Amino acid sequence: MGWLGSHFFLLRNIPTYAWQWTALAMLTTWVADAGAYVVGKFVAGKYVLGKHKLSPRLSPNKTVEGYFGGVVLGTFFTVLIGYFMHVPFWPLLLLGLSITILGPLGDLSISLLKREAGVKDSGNFLPGHGGALDRVDTLLWTVAIAYYLAYILLQLSW
Length: 158
Prior knowledge:
The chain is mainly alpha-helical and 158 residues long. The chain is 69% helix and 5% strand. The chain has a two-stranded antiparallel sheet. The longest helix has 26 residues, at 18-43. It is flat and about 45 Å long. It starts with a helix and ends with a helix.
């Protein structure tokens, strides 16, 4: 966890678009998560054919429809907001897709650790939200993803 968390500082210190990448990584994570929830809860089954569980054992309420809704909404948000931050289009598209496609692995990995440990919540700091770790599990992954993507793009002189 500490290693993943250190990527906040690494991302914030990249030489180009540091604050934009940091803000976009965090905002995209939250928009994709909210978008996945809304699409999975209110759209899937009503406007889309059925609800399909994404990972019934680890996170029984997550749906495939919600996952794809989060990918679309999160990526769209990244490109839109990044445009107003004057970040080039292709890095924005890559950032949005990388975060929204891979980010849910952070949530599922923490769910796996909790299931293996026989724990429902990672703490009682935020009752009803699964604990403080559940509020940042995806964010830890997405900031690391954003950092390595930015690092690669900088090496390619974007």
